[in-house]
TrEMBL record:
Name of the protein: L-fucose-proton symporter
Name of the encoding gene: fucP
Domain of life the protein comes from: Bacteria
The keyword RNA-binding appears for this protein: no
InterPro entries named among the record's database cross-references: MFS, MFS_trans_sf, MFS_TsgA-like
Compartments in which it is found: Cell inner membrane
Main location: membrane
Coiled-coil residue spans: none
SUPFAM superfamilies registered for this protein in UniProt: MFS general substrate transporter
Organism: Rosistilla ulvae
GO molecular function: transmembrane transporter activity
Transmembrane segments: 28-45, 69-89, 96-115, 121-138, 257-274, 304-327, 339-360, 367-385, 391-411, 423-441, 453-470
Amino acid sequence: MDTSASLLSDREPSELGDKPPAVVPRRYLLAFILTTCCFSMWGFANDLTNPLVKVFKEVFQISNTQSSLVQFAFYSGYFTMALPAAFFIRRFSYKGAIMVGFALYAVGALMSIPASLNTNFWIFIAGFYVLTFGLAFLETSCNPYILAMGPAETATRRLNLAQAFNPIGSLTGMIVASLLIAPSLNIGSFRDAVENRDPAAVQYLQAEYPDGLPDFATEFGALDSAASAGLKNMKATAPEEFLAIQTHDLAVVRTPYVAIAAVALAFLVLFAVAKMPDFRQPEPDAPFFEVVGRLLARPNFREGVIAQAFYVGAQITCWTFVIHYGMEQVGLTLAQAQNWNIAAMVIFLISRFICTFLMHYVSAGRLLALFAIAAVGFTLGAILLPGKTGLICLVLVSACMSLMFPTIYGIALKDLPEEEAKLGSAGLIMAIVGGAVLPLMQGKFIDELGVRSSFYLPLICFVVIALFGIRTFTKFERPTVTANH
């Protein structure tokens, strides 16, 4: 059954005349609202986790490369579970997949309890991995579910509208990290003590700075390096004192994950009792490999999966390492650097609504190309311009990223029959593995080359996305010319 044909029959009576088709038909409004809430849920998890890369580096005294395993575990869970989620949807329903997603989300979040009580980094890693099993179920089901809730002509705009609420969850996660987690961390208090030259902290730095501490106000990165060195020496010479810091800070980290687990379980119950539309076709889907073969024969899908992998990698590196950039290049505290991350998310949120409006006038491919080229320019600014100017450029990259995920998604799945869209969605969610691989690479680059030079990695990603946008409006969106006989 062709989804585009079936969706035309779902139009409201007023949509069948001269009026443009509705973005969200009235019959699907409640289902659209409930499903859109899910977008906020995975946004919260994504951006609550990003600052933990820096936090865990200090709390567990590990390298940037090792701390980047937080993102590797988080986003590799998508790759692991996206295809099983698609099989589940083929066998059961979008609604059932969403409920499984919330259950796994809650289990993964609750693993923060044994992880924090045992001060065990690897249980945290396992918890993030399981948590994203749930997010993979949610994203694999919610994105095509939203596409199906109305006419094919407005599918990409509808997905952009739903995705516009994802940053609300992300912003909430950032605010929790900035206002509740960061100010409560003892590693932050120790950093403040080093900055104020408190003897209780300076005693752990005498070996590194025999001639006295540097001028933290003029030497970018010096305070961050000194605080890390002090914590390392405390762990070696005063392990009980360091363990007390670990225990306290991991309890702070645990609290929001327990809370979000309760919210996920509440949503599971809500979806269990809600009446949701069922877009299952009466006849069974074609065999798996036959559907995969048809998908791979579509260049917009193949190239869309590649572009999505590069996009997610760029997004996660920009949002994760803005913390490092602010602390090392501008001398900000963790909470101050996180405030810049919040500013980036506010810009992202505003820009996504603007882009949804612009798509009424500008084709998706052309807009994608323009914004990706702008992202290349801002990323170059973050690399080449010093201090706060570079940080401002890095934050402005978020304005360019706002439309990328849903637009690439919509282009890749454009005009696909439902049975192809289910597996196609899984392929695009598997592409989120870019968010696992690229932060790990960038963590290594930060250790070896420094934080500014590491942003050449997302720059390359934006070049790839720009090329996909150009390909889209020059080839995939080009109208077909029919010869007259």
